[in-house]
Amino acid sequence: MTVIMPNKNKMKTKVLASIVIFGMAVMVLSSCSKLPQGEIDAVEISINETSTLFESGEYIATLDKANAAREKAMSINEELTGVIAKYKSNVQSRRS
């Protein structure tokens, strides 16, 4: 069985982009004071772990960890979007 390894520089670029994007997502999520801090902390820890893995040259593990952090951040975003939609709906129905 032959294992095909992706181009190292492309992998590094993809991983770095993921880390930066997720770091920015955590900053945005952190500014929402109503979120459970545990959820934000879990995403932040994952991002910090990706940085450590990246620095040690474990690019595939880094990408896996970054993808897991992205999924968690997306889950939080979906939850927030639902809450905001319900809030807007309640505010509009009160005005009617």
Task: Tell me about this structure.
The chain is mostly helical and 96 residues long. It has helices at residues 8-30, 37-55, 59-95. Helix 1 (8-30) packs parallel to helix 3 and helix 2 runs antiparallel to helix 3. The longest helix is centred in the C-terminal third of the chain and has 37 residues, at 59-95. It starts with 7 loop residues before the first helix and ends with a helix.
For the termini, the CA-CA separation is: 67 Å
Number of strands: 0
Q: Measured on Cα atoms, how large is the radius of gyration?
A: 18 Å
The residue fraction in helices comes out at over 70%
The helix-and-strand class reads mainly alpha
What's the story with the biggest beta sheet?
A: none
Short characterization:
The chain has helices at 8-30, 37-55, 59-95. It is mainly α.
SSE inventory with pairings:
Layout: H1 8-30, H2 37-55, H3 59-95
Keyphrases for this structure?
96 residues, mainly alpha, elongated
